[in-house]
């Protein structure tokens, strides 16, 4: 597989605003006005909660609107654009649908290509050598470590992202969610479920 990973996407974190933010961050730490822990916590919030909110909205829409789901699977980039989320020019987003018999997992074997318009910043483990290598060689073992044990009958498909094509997983809608509205459904959609290393959360029953 020879994807182009050296494209413009590596310039994204080096944009002028990013460099400026970095400079301000260093200065604030130097002056003792900000701790690195506080910054790490903020970045983690962006990776886990704030960034993936867009993707969660896309998934919840697809779960509740069959026509939108069809458009999303046919042309992810433009269906995601319908909800107001756009990526860098030239980067296409392909949405992969999980079913009871097929489970999709996303990786970037060469670097860290990621569908940032829908998922925000990639988590640290996504960029690790271990994940990038092992997700391809032994996806079932990797999924197990994430706490996801798949039945042997489920086919696992691993997708290698690059700078032109980014993948996002459409997780299976959890059982017992028929009565939930789109907004509540979105809360069940985690970042990891859209990378394919987890399932969507099951709703906590009302006591
Ligand atoms: Fe990459």
What does this structure look like?
The chain has 207 residues and is an alpha/beta fold. The chain has two domains: 35 residues, no CATH class; 143 residues, Nitrile Hydratase, Chain A. Helices cover 43% and strands 12% of the residues. The chain is built from ten helices and four strands; from the N terminus they run αααααββαααββαα. The protein has a two-stranded parallel ribbon with strand order 1-4. It has a two-stranded parallel ribbon with strand order 2-3. The longest helix has 15 residues. It is globular, with a radius of gyration of 18 Å. About 3% of the residues have low confidence. Bound molecules: fe (iii) ion (FE).
Cα-atom radius of gyration: 18 Å
Quote the beta fraction: 5-15%
Largest sheet at a glance? 2 strands, parallel
- Ions, cofactors and other bound molecules: fe (iii) ion
Total DSSP E strands: 4
Chain-averaged pLDDT = 88
Number of domains: 2
What distance separates the N and C termini?
51 Å
The low-pLDDT segments are 7-12
Classified by CATH, the class of the largest domain is Alpha Beta
Instruction: Give me the CATH architecture of the largest domain, please.
Output: Alpha-Beta Complex
Write the H/E string, N to C.
HHHHHEEHHHEEHH
Strand order of the largest sheet: 1-4
